[in-house]
Amino acid sequence: MSNQLKYDKILDALQELLVNKKLQTISVSEIAQTAGMGKGSLYYYFPSKDAIFEALIQRNYEKPLETAKNLASQTHISPFTRMAMIFQACTYSSSEFLKQRVPAAADIQEDAFLHHKYMNHLISELKPVLAEIIRQGIESDEIHFDAPAALAEIVLIVLTVKLDNTLLPSSPEEMEETLHGLISLLEKGTGIPHGALNYLTI
C-alpha cells in the first residue's frame, strides 16, 4: 500500500469515527485500529490527533480552496469576476462542511470546536488570495480601497459566519438579504461597479 493510500486511510478512519463519537473522546489508538494499522505506523504520518483532524479539514475542502487559490494569477479575468468566484468557493466549501456535520457534534462545545477549526482554516486559506485580487484591482484603478488584506478578512468573516448559519441562525431569505447587503457595501465603499458581483447567490 502506498504512503498516500495509508495517509488517506487514516483520514477516512477519523471521519468514520466522527459519525458516532465526539472528537475529544476518540483516541489515536482507535484511529489506528479503524485504519487497520499499528499506532506506531500512524505516527509516521501524523504527530498527533489534532494534526489528523487538521488534515481531514484540509482534504474535505481542498477542491474549492485550490480553485480559489489559482484565481490570483488569472489576471486576464476581471478582479470582480474573480472576487465573486472566491465568494462562490467559500459558499461551496461551507455547504460541504454543513453536509458533513456529524450527529455526535450536537454537543455545544464539540460543535463550536469543529466550527472554529473549519472557519479558521477557510479564512486563513482564502484571505491572502482575495487580498491579492483586491490589490490587483487597486493597481488597475478598478477598486478604490487602501487596505486589501483588511477588506479581504472582513468579507470572509462575514461570509463564513453567515454561511455557517449556527452563530445567528437565519432563513435562506435572510441569508440572501445579508449577502446582498455585503455586496452593496463593497460597491459603495470600493467603487466596484453596481452589479459586478450580482451573480453571487447562496
List the helices and strands and how they pair.
Elements: H1 3-18, H2 28-35, H3 39-45, H4 49-60, H5 62-71, H6 79-99, H7 108-139, H8 148-164, H9 172-190
Helix pairs in contact: 1-2, 1-4, 5-6, 5-7, 6-7, 6-8, 7-8, 8-9
Describe the fold and architecture:
This protein is an all-alpha fold and 202 residues long. Helices cover 70% and strands 0% of the residues. It contains 9 helices and no strands. The chain has helices at 3-18, 28-35, 39-45, 49-60, 62-71, 79-99, 108-139, 148-164, 172-190.
At a glance:
The protein is mainly alpha-helical and 202 residues long. It has nine helices and no strands. The protein has helices spanning 3-18, 28-35, 39-45, 49-60, 62-71, 79-99, 108-139, 148-164, 172-190.
Keywords:
202 residues, single chain, mainly alpha, 70% helix
What is the overall silhouette? elongated
| End-to-end Cα distance | 41 Å
Largest beta sheet, briefly? none
**DSSP summary: helix tally:** 9
Helix content class: over 70%
* Range of strand content: under 5%
Contiguous low-pLDDT stretches (5 residues minimum) are: none
Mean pLDDT over all positions:
83
What's the Cα radius of gyration?
19 Å
Please write the string of helix (H) and strand (E) elements.
HHHHHHHHH
Structural class: mainly alpha
- What is the strand tally? 0
